[in-house]
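User: Structure please.
Assistant: Input sequence and predicted structure:
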Amino acid sequence: SDTEAEIAALKELCASIDVPVELASVWADGAEGGVSLAETLVKTIDENPANYKRLYDNDLSVQEKIEKIVTEIYRGSKVNFEKKAQTQIAQIVQNGWDKLPICMAKTQYSFSDNPNALGAPENFEITI
């Protein structure tokens, strides 16, 4: 469990950057132990609207969505779609799943598909 010193340090840090803090005791007190946290969360959201913008419109093609992820998040320059990927994308379209968001997996060591290009390289090509 957290010590009083740890809790005090966290409260101090949050206060220094103007972030509200609420302690939750839902494990000990059930739902009642989370009410103040929930109220503070709702108040914070209401008072600080997010400047959220989707990366892409779901009406884009699967290939275009993947290209957006690669170029705008991973900082790559190009996506090469192998025949197998093209076949799988055609199946996605045929099943009507092409208007859904994309969830892309990659190595945890690099934004590229090259396991030797560690970290966040730029201007690389990804082959799918």
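The two ends are 45 Å apart (CA to CA).
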